[in-house]
Amino acid sequence: MKSYILGITGASAMPLAERSLQLLLQHKYNVHVVLSRGAYEVWNSEIGVKIPIDTNKQKLFWSHRLNLSTDTLSCYRWNDNSAPIASGSYKTNGMVIVPCTMGTVGRIASGYSLNLIERCADVQIKEGRSLIIAPRETPWSPIHLKNLTTLAEVGVKVFPPIPAWYSQPRSIDEMVDFLVTRLFDLLDEDLYPIKRWTGNSK
Ligand SMILES: Cc1cc2nc3c(=O)[nH]c(=O)nc-3n(C[C@H](O)[C@H](O)[C@H](O)COP(=O)(O)O)c2cc1C
Fold it and tell me: How many domains are there within the chain?
């Protein structure tokens, strides 16, 4: 069974994180979820719901909220640096950080693994495994751009969650589906049947 790490940090765009989790669980993949400390606060601001920090309660929370089995879900605290996923000896098919703050980008780029998300990202890079980040900030400063370049140069795929208009989204949900599916395209996953560009019809 495929296994992915989903890091959620305190940037805007939490619906992308939630839809990613939902689709991964619908595919019955093993999902390892870590929210940064800041992510709890931003989730509350954007979605208006508090996510439990306690990992057992959090599993129950996702199961109710997504109305899905969470048998394949593992939740970790941001400071659980002895979690299995913190070690290179624990194999996964890749890691996605969505949304990704510029703080997390900077800490990963400098090898400064303060929390479990940053440690897992560091492991993905050192082991030569797939790491996809969806950085969200605007505008990007030269510091942000340098840090993103550093990551791109070591093989991290940088996926800014910028919507496409050619798919003619009729709702925010459609836009979210498009972005999440394009994000997971980078891991060679086809999570959801989106309307893809097939050329201009005459
Ligand atoms: C409502 C809200 C929205 C935020 N949006 C962003 C954002 O889009 N990008 C970003 O880099 N930081 C954003 N921040 C700031 C980060 O949450 C903050 O710097 C935090 O310490 C980052 O920690 P983390 O990288 O461990 O999640 C936001 C904060 C709040 C309260």
Answer: 1
